[in-house]
Amino acid sequence: MEYSLSNEFLEVKVSSTGGAMTSIKSKDGLEYLWQGDPAYWANQAPLLFPICGSIRENQASVGDHRQMQMNRHGIVRDREFDCEQQSMHSVTMAVRSDEEMLEQFPFEVKFSVTYTLEGHSVIQTFTVENLEEEEMLPFFVGGHPAFNCPMLEGEDYTDYYVEFEKEETCSVPEQLTETGLLNLQKRRDFLKGTKRLPLNFDLFAEDAVTFDELKSRSVKLASEKHGHSVTVDFEEFPYFILWTTANRGPFLAMEPWLGLSTCSDESDQFEEKRGVQIAAPGERRSYSFTMTFA
Predict the structure, then answer these.
(1) Residue 291, SS3?
(2) What is the pLDDT of residues 70-89, one digit of tens each?
(3) Domains defined for the chain, CATH in brackets
(4) Residues paired with residue 19 on neighbouring β-strands, in sequence order
(5) Checking phi first, is residue 198 left (phi over 0); if not, alpha (psi -120 to 50) or beta?
(6) Residues β-bridged to residue 172
(7) What global pTM score does this model have?
(8) How far apart, in whole angstroms, are the C-alpha atoms of residue 233 and residue 291?
């Protein structure tokens, strides 16, 4: 089932499958959101929970002798969500642990996402509620929205650039393509005293670009040829990922993450991962980022 939000600037559609957005259109019909062509990537804006990226061999230990087992990005992207609240400008979608989810992640949890339209912006808020009576809940959440790039016919990928809020000098860690894991100790210089990253497909020859040293908490996708753009503000998220497919997918995923794939210096005990979030029994924790469209 699909739910619609609308204001004077934008129209947004959200699916009950995965609780994810399926369309973000301006009122004059410009589609910003990638439309999921399976020749490149069939998804559009999946929700990442309780991991971002991958864990080693898709499994980890958690708590007292329990195991979690899941593929990249976690367990909710294909789940059927319930609509808990809807108005013209906001919708909340939620899913609770069922038997299949508990086999992968052995904690009773409620995971919800709220999309709120405010002017030219969509605010995406994740809420994680620990339904356990005694156990602490370790988790991560992340966004994975992908945007059309190019946005207009007759343009090329190389007409676009990513602009950072602040001048950046940083390196990025090695991506272990076969496993999806990261080597934080093996790095390459990436940005040097610049706010602008010109786009080309060679950037993604070895999969995603993972920023773990950014000062910026706002990143914009824009074109040299027109004024349309997408800006992602992610103050609450320490990591930011840029990605498109190795077969030159005409989109750019701009992804705020709370955590990273398992790193080469980390154990397979999930709650020992760097930056892990912990919810006490009965606690609800929320995290938001904002997408603004011009």
Answers:
(1) strand
(2) 999 999 999 999 999 999 99
(3) 2-293 (2.70.98.10)
(4) none
(5) beta
(6) 188
(7) 0.96
(8) 7
